[in-house]
């Protein structure tokens, strides 16, 4: 009897001051609904720092706690208006992502989507932005640009973080001689953005969508949570159905 072909893979990115083990627990309700269709690969950020919001006391002694940006450079949460945060995806992050992609492809699988919680949503946005920048500049099909080479068909963010997306410096462009900035084109790859109605930081996730995503391909849904993953059966079913829609429409 021949082996079953690999399921399509979704890469999963935890929030600031967390890790893959913790996010595996936080994602468990939704993961049970997605795993009949997808393999979920949950990654660890490359930078170690203090525990992030909502991690203690439940996940005490579950470190090391990791980040997708360097804590010493960017702080842990940024300013109220999302200013002063670097928009560069550091090489260490690209290395983590591409190692995972290569491992999936070596088994005959394909990475088709990415989901991120809080700070992890900046990684997802950056991956989608990088893909589109490469295609727009006519660099597709060659070697990885900025250390990245992905073919994501959709992205999902939970309790999104501040703009800008994390994009490799090689794909940044100079503007008026100032610091590097990402091109102004909005992300057009289909995306789902899950916002917590009681999340005290929900305005930053909305800011990311408003400033960086094309309104025609970005859908926002609200759930009755604070700054954590959806809890209720009904809300997780709703998120699952939206992810399945993205997948079916992108095939």
Mean pLDDT: 88
Q: How many individual β-strands?
A: 8
Distance between the termini: 27 Å
Shape designation: globular
**CATH architect. name:** 3-Layer(aba) Sandwich
Output the radius of gyration: 17 Å
Helical stretch count? 7
Tell me roughly what share of residues is in helical segments: 25-40%
Identify the CATH class: Alpha Beta
Q: What is the H/E order?
A: EHHEEEHHEHEEHEH
Give the domain tally: 1
Which sequence of strands runs across the widest sheet?
A: 2-1-5-6-7-8
Domain Serine hydrolase: 6-237
Protein name: Serine hydrolase domain-containing protein
GO cellular component, one term: nucleus
Family: Belongs to the LovG family.
């Amino acid at each position: 009897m021949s082996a079953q072909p690999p399921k399509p893979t979704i890469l999963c990115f935890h929030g600031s001051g967390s890790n893959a083990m913790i996010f595996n627990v936080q994602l468990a309700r939704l993961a049970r609904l997605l795993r009949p269709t997808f393999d979920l690969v949950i990654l660890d950020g490359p930078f170690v720092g203090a525990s992030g919001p909502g991690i203690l006391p439940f996940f005490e002694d579950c470190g090391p706690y990791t980040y997708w940006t360097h804590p010493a450079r960017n702080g842990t949460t940024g300013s109220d208006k999302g200013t002063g945060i670097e928009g560069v995806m550091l090489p260490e992050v690209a290395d983590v992502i591409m190692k995972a992609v290569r491992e999936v492809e070596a088994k005959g699988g394909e990475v088709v989507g990415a989901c991120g919680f809080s700070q992890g949503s900046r990684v997802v946005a950056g991956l989608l932005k990088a893909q589109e920048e490469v295609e727009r500049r006519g660099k597709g099909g060659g070697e990885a640009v900025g250390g990245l080479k992905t073919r994501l068909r959709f992205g999902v963010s939970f309790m999104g973080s501040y703009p800008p997306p994390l994009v490799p410096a090689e794909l940044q462009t100079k503007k008026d001689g100032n610091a590097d900035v990402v091109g102004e084109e909005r992300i057009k790859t289909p995306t789902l953005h899950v916002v917590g109605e009681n999340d005290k930081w929900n305005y930053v996730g909305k800011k990311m969508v408003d400033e960086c995503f094309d309104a025609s391909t970005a859908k926002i849904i609200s759930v009755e949570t604070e700054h954590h993953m959806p809890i209720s059966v009904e809300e997780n079913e709703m998120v699952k159905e939206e992810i399945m829609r993205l997948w079916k429409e992108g095939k």
